[in-house]
Amino acid sequence: MDAASYLSSKNYTHNIGVRSGLPESKQAGAPKQHHGFSPYVFNGGTTMAIAGDGYVVVAGDTRLSAGYEIMTRDHSKLCKLNDRVVLASIGFQGDSTTLHKHLKMKLAMYKHNHDKDMGVEACAQMLMTTLYYKRFFPYYTINILVGLDKDDQGAVYHYDPIGSFERETYRAAGTGSQLLQPLLDSEVGFKNKSDVVEKKTPTLEEAINLCKDAFAGVAERDIYTGDRVQILIITKDGVKEETFTLRRD
Q1: Whole-prediction pTM value?
Q2: How many angstroms separate the Cα of 159 from the Cα of each of 57, 182, 240?
Q3: Is residue 90 within 8 Å of 57, Cβ to Cβ?
């Protein structure tokens, strides 16, 4: 028996590693470890939107987190693109900021060339092409684009990170979406109610109150949602803002 086999049979190599105080990954015979770098961080938060007759309401909390750390309690996830269109983004904050700046630049060029603001339908298509263009190194963002269409009806567009989207009447996104979406399905979509006589689109006041109640409930269960809710209300008169305080722990 050679020396290596003898030492191995007596478990000496393991004991030497333990006695030396070396971590297991540094001891002889330990598997190789590869160190990687991720350019993405998920900063948490929740957004939601409800569209109705002549209005659309979009809301997002203002907490920005990284793991179990709160980076700031006053960060807006909503970006006003013009007087009829708002974009709500959650995910990696660096990518959200870059995306918002890029879209604002395109909208400014459009207004300069055409002497009018871009409509929500055109904005939806522009956002799709912008996200798809970056598909090989995508913006780590989940986006909800809202606004009034050419008939002054509320529109909600929901996107995945590489640009696939669809128009809906309501949608939730973010860390609290698993709690919010079933509530919206019930209260706005009437998908899981058996005693509904008439399916009515909520009024503007009802939609605002639903946003407040929904976020108050999510903040009790989701540690990444909290501090304050920013609510933007889009009508033919423009964009108005309301705020609602949540728990701060």
Answers
A1: 0.83
A2: 17, 19, 24
A3: no
- Between CA 228 and CA 51, with CA 177 as vertex, the angle to 5 degrees is 80
Please, what is the angle between helix 120-133 and helix 93-114, to 10°? 130
Alpha carbons within 13 angstroms on the beta-carbon side of residue 205 total 0
- The pLDDT assigned to 24 comes to 63
Distance, CA of 14 to CA of 68 (rounded, Å):
37
Distance CA 118, CA 71 (A): 34
**56, β-bridge pairs:** 51, 234
Q: Which fold has domain 46-245?
A: Glutamine Phosphoribosylpyrophosphate, subunit 1, domain 1 (3.60.20)
pLDDT of 44-83, one tens digit each? Answer: 999 999 999 999 999 999 999 998 999 999 999 999 999 9
CA dihedral 148, 89, 215, 121 (to 10 degrees): 20
Give the residue among 164, 166, 163 at the shortest CA–CA distance from 155: 166
Look at residue 19 and tell me whether its pLDDT is greater than 50: no
Query: 221 near 174, Cβ under 8 Å?
Result: no
Domain ranges of the chain: 1-36, 46-245
Average pLDDT of the chain to the nearest whole number: 89
